[in-house]
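Could you help me review a protein record that somebody else here produced? My question to you is simply how this chain folds and whether the tokens agree. Thanks in advance; the entry in question is below:
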Amino acid sequence: MAQANEDEIRTYAHQLWEKAGRPEGCDKEFWELARQE
């Protein structure tokens, strides 16, 4: 996800979080995963 803006990262992080079963307290991890892709 090169040159992604913050909204795109947020949306992708949310999708990753939902696919993982919505674990609590992992927001920073999913943000970093989304930002790296």
